[in-house]
Amino acid sequence: MIYRYTGAALALLLLQGCASDPAPSEQMRLTEQVVEQARTVAAGETVAELTQAEEKLALARAAMADEAYRDARIQTEQAELDARLGEARVLSLRSQAQLVELNRQIGRLREQLGAMP
Question: What sequence ranges are listed for the domain DUF4398 (predicted)?
Fold first, then answer.
């Protein structure tokens, strides 16, 4: 009886191993859009995460061409996350710069108000 269950389990594993991953076409399209959006937000700034995202997207395209769909899916998911992180980093740095500028302006206004008779 144990052999029958073991044989059935092995058969299932073999069938599962033979099943191929579907092409991640939708994920690829989404990742390309996210990377393009991050490029637009960065607009000329060098962001390490965006560079990594572009490299991983290139690897994903190569994997798609080789029909290595599992690898392509993994690379596109990682590229998307890197692009989103890079975009968030750029926006955060810009917000910090704006905060510094606003604090500088507030300080200047306080000085002007303090100098009033």
Answer: 26-101
